[in-house]
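Example 3.
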Amino acid sequence: MKTIRRSSSIISVAAIVAVMVAFPAWLPAQTAAVKSSDASSCSAMQWSVQVDRVNTGDLEVAYSFQVAIYENLLKELSKTKQFTQVFRDGDRKASDVPNLLVLQTTVEKYTPGSETRRAVTTVSGATKLTVRSQIVTREGKIVLERRVNGNVRLFGSNLRATHNLARNIAKAIKQSRWDVG
Amino acid sequence: MDRLFILKNRRNSYFVGHALIRVWALLFCSSLGALAQSTAPPVNASAPVSIRATHLLGLKNTKSNCNGTLSIQGDALQFQQGGKPGAEVKITSIQAVFQGAESKQVGGLPMKLGKAAAPYGGGRVVSLLAHKKYDTLTLEYVDSNGGLHGAIFQLSKGQGELVTNLLKARGVSPSSGEYQTTKQSTAEVMDENN
């Protein structure tokens, strides 16, 4: 009886090993996700990006916010290592780069919060930013378009919303696939 | 009758004296006002100025949220941390200066912990009182390649206007960048299209 049990357990282990060898695609989904992001980064590595200044349209957005979004975007995009070079708006060196994409950011919604109100009420006073981010080619073809939020709901200064927003935009770009074709 | 006449004369001279005092006081006050207007501190464009400031973000080789001294020397705006050679921006490269006002909670983490530990919502009352208003100074400038940079500083209340005026006096022309004052309002600003 014991020998039968032992042999059956050996057979089942062997079967599992055989299945894993035969179907490597059944590896955990996390690994697959990493592979896909690697693939997208490979395609993006050939490209450089120029960050345009933030367009606010008709909205009254504090200038400190506009500048903070712009500067944080430059920092976060450099951190992602998705692009060979990250250029500033107006940089003359960008015109010599063969594969250049332009990141355009338009503020769609802005709620100027209050740190004091957040501290006093907890539920109100949040600073909220919603922007439309577009990556376009030199010819003006939209390669990627995303609507991204950046908020400060509880702790931190109002300007922290711009940091969160820039981080979310960089994350959205990193996780997306685009076809410049 | 004579006595009555003398009394009347005395009363007249009394009123005239009072009127003179009033006119003199009026003249004195108005001259003081004029003097105060004329003695407003003139913006000396050539004198070096240094102000305690916090660099929030933007300057190269300078950490964010660090305290230091913001100074205008010669043709450059400098930010120094504790005597170290700091970041420098040529005034001629500054395209725009924006002044804003914000308020923030003071006390840092210890205050936050104290407020959280206070019973019966006492922390909220402390939050209501423990905030400080300050000025923000936002600069837009270009580097040698024409790339746009931005830098934000946090200054004590009233200092933002001083630095803005000094930069204006040193040739940052309003035509190349508008001097604007922005104040954080609590009103929600929303795009009408959405």
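Chain B touches chain A at residues 56-58, 96, 98, 100, 102-105, 112, 115, 124, 127-128, 131, 136, 138, 140, 142-143, 145-152, 180, 182, 184-194 (CB under 8 Å). Helices of chain B lie at 2-38, 108-117, 122-129, 159-169.
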